[in-house]
């Protein structure tokens, strides 16, 4: 064989082997799993966006269809993906898979209720006191009663024993206002707080308060004593507090009051009706704001009304009145008075009265 022909034959064999080797390497690289990128290497900016070129799988569709191995792999992948769906599970098993069962709740240990009624009565009363400790001492017909008081009183519906014990403690340790003074619709209501209570609740009350001053130029029509108010059922009341917020007889009200002695007469008549309905009241406590004078027409008329009904007169802490003397009668000693008293041998502990 000529030398030239031999070289051509050898070249063809090398080219064929090289082509087969390259084809094998490319085929293995197409089906080999991707090599993970170390986490310490920065990801190229271009890899953060999807490629605009067709992927290798899209460009070699014909080869995958023709190749037996590639077709088998694609079929296995399709079955695996189908198994993740409800339809795939039905096709694979021939029957629908059961829905997942809910997680069972942990069995709670049944605890016995605390035997509250087996405690001594003294301890139960102490617990009731702590329970009602955050309620205001004086209760009035107020829009906030539902939020502050009504929900707490739901505790009385537990049983009959708790209703009697806690109910008596609540109504007997709070002072209830006879006529509402809160501004708004409750101020002019014809159904005060006492009229909204039951006869049993009124019988537990031990202290009432009547405020005078609101509506001094035009008293509300609901401020009347009648059987619906239920004062005659408050048989446990022994203390009545009369708090005077203002005295319209003072000169500062000149030109504003309706007529002389209008509100003073209304207040005396109201106190008379209240004491007539409750002859069991033992003492009347008078208190007022600092602007009210004890010698004013308002206070003198109220004190005389309480005395005419044979009631004991007490004084509240706000104004600081006493039985000994009136605060208006106390004269502050001057330097000349001090010198005169020392010369006459009179001690300065003596109160100088005008």
UniProtKB/TrEMBL annotation:
InterPro entries: AN11006-like. It comes from the Eukaryota. Residues 38-54 have a biased composition (Polar residues). Residues 28-63 are annotated as: Disordered. This is F-box domain-containing protein. The lineage of its organism: Eukaryota, Fungi, Dikarya, Ascomycota, Pezizomycotina.
């Amino acid at each position: 064989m000529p030398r030239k022909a031999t070289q051509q034959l050898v070249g063809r064999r090398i080219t064929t082997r090289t082509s087969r080797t390259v084809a094998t390497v490319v085929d293995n690289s197409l089906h080999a799993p991707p090599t993970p990128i170390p986490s310490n290497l920065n990801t190229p900016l271009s890899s953060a966006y999807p490629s605009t070129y067709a992927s290798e799988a899209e460009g070699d569709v014909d080869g995958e269809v023709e190749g037996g191995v590639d077709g088998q792999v694609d079929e296995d992948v399709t079955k695996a993906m189908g198994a993740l769906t409800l339809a795939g599970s039905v096709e694979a098993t021939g029957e629908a898979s059961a829905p997942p069962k809910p997680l069972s709740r942990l069995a709670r240990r049944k605890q016995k209720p605390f035997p509250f009624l087996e405690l001594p009565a003294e301890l139960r009363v102490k617990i009731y006191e702590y329970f009602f400790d955050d309620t205001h001492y004086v209760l009035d017909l107020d829009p906030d009663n539902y939020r502050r008081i009504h929900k707490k009183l739901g505790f009385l519906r537990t049983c009959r024993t708790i209703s009697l014990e806690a109910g008596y403690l609540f109504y007997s340790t709070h002072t209830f206002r006879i006529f509402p003074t809160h501004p708004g619709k409750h101020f002019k209501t014809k159904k005060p707080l006492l009229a909204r209570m039951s006869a049993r609740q009124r019988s537990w009350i031990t202290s009432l308060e009547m405020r005078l001053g609101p509506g001094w130029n035009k008293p509300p029509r609901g401020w009347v004593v009648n059987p619906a108010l239920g004062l005659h059922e408050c048989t446990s009341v022994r203390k009545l507090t009369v708090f005077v917020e203002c005295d319209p007889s003072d000169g500062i009200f000149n030109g504003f009051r309706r007529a002389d002695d209008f509100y003073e007469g209304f207040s005396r008549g109201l106190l008379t009706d209240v004491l007539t309905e409750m002859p069991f009241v033992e003492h009347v406590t008078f208190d007022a704001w600092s602007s009210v004078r004890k010698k004013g027409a308002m206070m003198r008329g109220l004190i005389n009304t309480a005395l005419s009904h044979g009631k004991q007169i007490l004084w509240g802490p706000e104004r600081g009145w006493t039985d000994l003397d009136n605060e208006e009668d106390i004269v502050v000693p001057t330097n000349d008075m001090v010198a005169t008293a020392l010369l006459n041998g009179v001690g300065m502990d003596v109160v100088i009265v005008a």
